[in-house]
Amino acid sequence: MPPGPMGFGGPPPSAMNEKLKEPLPKNIKEVPGYLKRVFRSFFSRLIYIIKLVWEAKKSLLIMMVFMAVFNGVSPVLSAYISANLLNKVAEVLRLDAPAFATICSILLPAMLLQFGFMFFISLVNCVSHMITRISSELVTNHVKCKIMNKAKEIDVASFDMPEFYEKFENANREAGSRPIEVIRSTFSIVSTLISVISFVVILAAVAWFAPLVVVLLSLPSAIITFHYRKKNFKYMRHHSKERRQMAYYSDILVNKDMVKELRLFGLSDTFIFNYNKVFARYFSGIKQLITAEGVWGILISLVTTLVNCALFFFIAYTVTTGSGQIGDYSLYTGALTSIANSVAMLVTTTSSIYEGTLFIDNMIVFMNEKRHIVPALPEARHVERHVGHTIEFKDVSFRYPGTKRDVLKNINFSIVPGDTVVLVGLNGAGKTTLLKLLTRLYDPTEGVILLDGHDIREYDTNELYAMYGVIFQDFGKYAFSVSENISFGEISKTADRTEVEEAAKASSADDFIQKLPLKYDTPLTRVFEMEGIEPSIGQWQKLAIARAFYSDSDVLILDEPTASLDAIAEQEIFNQFDMLRKDKITFFVSHRLSSATIATKILVLQNGTLAEMGNHTELMNKKGVYYELFSTQAKRYLESEKEEPLRRM
Asked: Where are the beta strands (DSSP E) in 425-564?
């Protein structure tokens, strides 16, 4: 399969899901079509959210539907029960010196009915609150699991795209709480609609036009609310950089790994100043939106209040001039108040749902992200394990997504079984990038990488990853036990304590492990456990190297494996690697060029190109780039040794 744009066999991440963006209408004729598309998009997002809740727990969704129906009916029943009680009270007031028994016989049934219904509503509300909290936990967990499972499949290249990573962060932050908020609001609308329809039927007996007036009054409020919800969403999306900056500045001040440097360099006030500066810029826009929406809300509220007063007067006049009772006035005015409140709540809740579905786009975009690092053949090739392999780079070039500069340009070399390859070059020469291409974390922009004569893209990716034993310079430091940290070198096999200890001895990690309180069961870092220990960077590096020894790999890739170790520890580990790498291909990256003397091939990278290739003797005789680098480093070491006796005098 030939590489597509950016070399990933398909569209770059920045082009993903453009269909989610709805262009604004250019003229009045396009408005109906625009509204149709917006509503279709809105309901598709809503269905997506309902599906998330259904996947999390079906029974909870069914119970929430029941609660929505009950909550819609209960205000109407409550209004009738209250009106009935008021009428009974009025009946007692009309009696002339009624006996206690008479009063009880008239009022007690109505009061018992009201208080019984009030208790039942309270009971249902408690159950509803409990269901909401449980469903919130379950849905949040379900969404987080979906995001984690999707994250493990997404190409590494996607995480290098700021646009994609921004949406990933938004999805991870918003998607946990937004779905249940939208569902709760949706069912609240169902309840409100049931109540409104019921009250409209009740009110039709005295003022059929009143509900229509209330609805018409709500339209300006709805337009304003939806308009500012959309503006608020756009503002937050367009200013996500400021929000991420604020999160960065606030998080760094409570980062336990940074606190020493922040304190010693006096950087805390600098980060607080930057946080406040960014917040002031971000807040100024939010404040304007909130203020403008509030002013419109005040004006609309004034007009609505005046009209409602007129409607109340009309109802009072109709009831008092007719044959109605005091309970009827309570019922009708209560119905009008409920309709007005419900319509206002419908506007607010619908706008909240609309805003929530806009935010859920982040998750939809994330979940729809396509994986391009996949086998190029319908039937992927299988990697033959525990045999000698050949690797060849043919005219390989690479640039990172969204950039125009080639990090690697026209790289050509071949490796045979048993080769030890050392990558040499200054920082930024492309050494680590070359290893990422070799392991197929990325695909070349141009050219091809061959494994045993076949394009590396034709192999099953999981089998391909399993054949490599890798230590990158930014190796993982996991908050697990010592034993687990080492066994992560090959998670697919059952952890064996004997093998773990042998790997630790090979990496010289066993010495410090034996001094730990719980030895191999000691938790690392104090993130979760009080008895956890914080290893030094050199100790962490020995554990990372132990992972490489523990893994049953065909190709070893060691990116600065001994950078934090002293010379003696480094030599011990190299001696162990001599035994480990027999009949295997090994790739080293090291700034200590003394390690290059053991290589069968030295690849000298300079500005992304392969400047020289050969063994130590050949390249020294050539007196080129490698000779200059090696000689400069050797001279510095010799000068350091000469100065050492003088310092001791």
From this structure: 446-451, 454-455, 468-471, 555-559
Which amino acid is it at 371? R
Q: What confidence tens digit (pLDDT) does each residue in 341-357 have?
A: 666 676 677 777 776 77
Whether 53 and 134 have beta carbons less than 8 Å apart is answered as no
Q: Is 406 helix (H, G, I), strand (E, B) or coil?
A: coil
Sign of CA dihedral 147, 152, 156, 157: negative
Q: Say how far apart CA 447 and CA 396 lie, in whole Å.
A: 4
How far apart are the two ends of the chain, measured CA to CA in Å?
Answer: 68
- Which residues 6+ apart lie within 8 Å of 630 measured at CB? 593, 596, 616, 619, 620
Task: Count Cβ atoms within 10 A of the Cβ of residue 302 and give its class: 0-12 exposed, 13-18 middle, 19 or more buried.
Answer: exposed
pLDDT at 600: 87
Residue 311 has pLDDT above 90, yes or no: no
Distance CA 365, CA 377 (A): 27
496: helix, coil or strand? Answer: coil
Contact assessment for residue 489 and residue 551, using Cβ atoms and an 8 Å cutoff:
yes
Q: What is the reported pLDDT for 20?
A: 44
pLDDT at 589 over 50: yes
pLDDT tens, position by position, 516-574: 888 988 988 877 777 788 888 888 888 888 888 888 788 888 877 666 566 666 666 66
Is residue 174 a contact partner of residue 233, using CB atoms and an 8 Å limit?
Answer: no
Give bridge partners of residue 411 from the DSSP assignment: 396
Domains of the chain: 14-367 (1.20.1560.10), 386-467+560-649 (3.40.50.300), 475-552 (3.40.50.300)
What value, to the nearest 5°, has the Cα angle with vertex 637 and ends 631 and 641? 140
Q: What is the pLDDT of residues 25-47, one digit of tens each?
A: 556 666 566 667 767 777 777 78
Query: Are the C-beta atoms of residues 433 and 407 closer than 8 Å to each other?
Result: yes
Verdict on whether the full-model pTM lies above 0.70: no
Contacts with 69 (C-beta within 8 Å, 6 or more apart), sequence order: 190, 191, 194
Query: Does 208 or 2 have the greater pLDDT score?
Result: 208
**Range with the largest mean pLDDT of 99-113, 493-507, 611-625:** 611-625
Question: How far apart, in Å, are the Cα atoms of 50 and each of 55, 209, 222, 234, 491?
Answer: 9, 36, 24, 24, 36
